């Protein structure tokens, strides 16, 4: 399974101003996915210059200061003489750039870099102005350090991923240039007219001591999940419609009896998407003897609503983390240099795990709706497996297998990473968050949910087509029409994988949501 959703549509590229306050979700997405330029505010540069003097005043202090005149982690007991302190910072970055495994996606690295730059811009890290401006220059030149899958324990910051970025700032290591080509960092910086930075006291530590990788992936996942939750309401509505279910259970007064805001929002979407459906009207009369639908249809707003509320909780946590200045030691507002534990990734790690759980459950319910279409005992008059000639044709039989395989994988990905901890650094760092690992598996879960919803959309659309001459609702009809532009309707068996990928793109780009909203107006 890919770790990336299909490419999203191009958006207007803006300039993101990085200053004393937090960057927004929109800022992260603009820089990570759409190559928005970054600029440092005048106020932030003034604060960076002011707090750098605090660090420089400590350089000759006989009293040891962590990260300035000492070693790191379990080696913090060694006092480092003045003439070795530049080497100390270089050695820190080089030794910590120890990642391994597959290359991490460009959008993740750019999000990580923006968030580290945002912390540098607060002035709380004590770096020189040159460090912050050069970091911004890397982003603006489209230079992306090669970061590897493994290396972060989610404590003391995302050390290895951030160290690979710091290494590029020094003109060392491997990067991808603005065209995506692999190059030595020194060559890429020279081509972009960027002078590498010679690190000084504390600067290497300031560049690697943050939760920026896991936070960047959290922000991107929340952005994707919000779109996918709306998509899930649309595909659920299409399934209810094509399976001759009832929309009576989505009534606002029934939903209000259990006042979860996410549930109310999902039910409102279902009502809006199904409004005016001739298929729904065809079986409202007294001749319909069905008392209530299966849970996967009837309880769609309860499950998707719970997922919505969980995403909102995760967004609160992410917002707080975006407002944080994570470093150790940190320069306080009144000029003290203090050690702290704010680099611990636990708050972010918990919600990353939580989101993997709700993504898996939402996908599980979607798969159950798809399965109902394929069983003649439950699909209310449709062909077995929605096949043109069952027995000769297999229809969507194996599309559901693909869904089931993805859902099974997502259930494994829902096992929390944050309950694990492997002590490190000679037991100095004896409890870690594993937040980076939680973020990596969440990206796979988001991709999986995208694919599961796409297969439900493809299957429900075929079910709606097979209800002809009955017409669908205007909104579901608009989604069906958008799908039919890239994937044909019912017929004899054909190569199905390309049609699934076309549906995946329709979901991942938000085109399915936009099609429905062309009728309903903005959905929740």
UniProtKB/TrEMBL annotation:
<keyword id="KW-0456">Lyase</keyword>
<dbReference type="Pfam" id="PF00221">
    <property type="entry name" value="Lyase_aromatic"/>
</dbReference>
<protein>
    <recommendedName>
        <fullName>Histidine ammonia-lyase</fullName>
        <ecNumber>4.3.1.3</ecNumber>
    </recommendedName>
</protein>
<comment type="pathway">
    <text>Amino-acid degradation; L-histidine degradation into L-glutamate; N-formimidoyl-L-glutamate from L-histidine: step 1/3.</text>
</comment>
<dbReference type="InterPro" id="IPR022313">
    <property type="entry name" value="Phe/His_NH3-lyase_AS"/>
</dbReference>
<dbReference type="InterPro" id="IPR001106">
    <property type="entry name" value="Aromatic_Lyase"/>
</dbReference>
<dbReference type="GO" id="GO:0005737">
    <property type="term" value="C:cytoplasm"/>
</dbReference>
<dbReference type="GO" id="GO:0004397">
    <property type="term" value="F:histidine ammonia-lyase activity"/>
</dbReference>
<keyword id="KW-0369">Histidine metabolism</keyword>
<dbReference type="InterPro" id="IPR005921">
    <property type="entry name" value="HutH"/>
</dbReference>
<dbReference type="InterPro" id="IPR024083">
    <property type="entry name" value="Fumarase/histidase_N"/>
</dbReference>
<comment type="similarity">
    <text>Belongs to the PAL/histidase family.</text>
</comment>
<dbReference type="GO" id="GO:0019556">
    <property type="term" value="P:L-histidine catabolic process to glutamate and formamide"/>
</dbReference>
<dbReference type="InterPro" id="IPR008948">
    <property type="entry name" value="L-Aspartase-like"/>
</dbReference>
<dbReference type="GO" id="GO:0019557">
    <property type="term" value="P:L-histidine catabolic process to glutamate and formate"/>
</dbReference>
């Amino acid at each position: 399974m890919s770790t990336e959703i299909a490419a999203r549509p191009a958006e207007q590229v803006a300039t993101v101003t990085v200053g004393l306050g937090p960057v927004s979700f929109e800022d992260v997405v603009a820089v990570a996915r759409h190559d928005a330029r970054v600029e440092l505010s005048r106020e932030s540069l003034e604060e960076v210059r002011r707090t750098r003097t605090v660090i420089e005043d400590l350089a000759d202090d006989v009293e040891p200061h962590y990260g300035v005149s000492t070693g790191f982690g379990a080696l913090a007991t060694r006092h480092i003489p003045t003439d070795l302190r530049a080497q100390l910072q270089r050695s820190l970055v080089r030794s910590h750039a120890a990642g391994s495994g597959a290359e991490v996606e460009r959008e993740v690295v750019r999000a990580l870099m923006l968030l580290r730059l945002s912390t540098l811009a607060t002035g709380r890290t004590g770096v020189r102005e040159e460090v912050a401006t050069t970091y911004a220059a890397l982003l603006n030149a489209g230079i992306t350090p090669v970061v590897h899958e493994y290396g972060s324990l989610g404590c003391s910051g995302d050390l290895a991923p951030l160290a690979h970025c710091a290494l590029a700032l020094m003109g060392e290591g491997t990067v991808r240039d603005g065209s995506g080509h692999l190059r030595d960092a020194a060559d890429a910086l020279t081509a972009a007219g960027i002078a590498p930075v010679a690190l000084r006291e504390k600067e290497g530590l300031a560049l690697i001591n943050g939760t920026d990788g896991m936070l960047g992936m959290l922000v991107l996942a929340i952005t994707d999940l919000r779109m996918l939750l709306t998509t899930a309401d649309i595909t659920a509505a299409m399934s209810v419609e094509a399976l001759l279910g009832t929309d009576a259970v989505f009534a606002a007064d029934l939903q209000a009896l259990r006042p979860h805001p996410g549930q109310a929002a999902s039910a409102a979407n279902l009502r809006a998407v199904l409004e005016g459906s001739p298929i729904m009207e065809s079986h409202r009369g007294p001749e319909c003897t069905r008392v209530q639908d299966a849970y996967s249809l009837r309880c769609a707003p309860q499950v998707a609503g719970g997922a919505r509320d969980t995403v909102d909780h995760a967004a609160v946590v992410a917002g707080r983390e975006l407002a944080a200045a994570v470093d150790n030691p940190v320069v306080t507002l009144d000029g003290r240099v203090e050690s702290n534990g704010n680099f611990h990734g636990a708050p972010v790690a918990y919600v990353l795990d939580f989101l993997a759980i709700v993504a898996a459950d939402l996908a599980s319910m979607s798969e159950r709706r798809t399965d109902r279409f394929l069983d003649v005992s439950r699909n209310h008059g449709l062909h077995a497996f929605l096949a043109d000639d069952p027995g000769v044709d297999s229809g969507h039989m194996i599309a559901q297998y693909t869904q089931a395989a993805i859902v099974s994988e997502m259930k494994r990905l829902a096992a929390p990473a944050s309950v694990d901890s492997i002590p490190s650094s000679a037991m100095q760092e004896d409890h870690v968050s594993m937040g980076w690992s939680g973020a990596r598996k969440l990206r796979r879960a988001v991709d999986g949910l995208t694919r599961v919803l796409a297969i439900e959309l493809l299957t429900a659309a075929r079910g709606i087509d097979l209800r002809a001459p009955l017409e669908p609702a205007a909104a579901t009809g608009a989604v069906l029409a958008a799908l039919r532009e890239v994937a044909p309707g019912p017929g004899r068996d054909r190569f199905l994988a390309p049609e699934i990928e076309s549906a995946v793109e329709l979901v991942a780009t938000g085109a399915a949501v936009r099609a429905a909203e062309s009728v309903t107006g903005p959905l929740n």
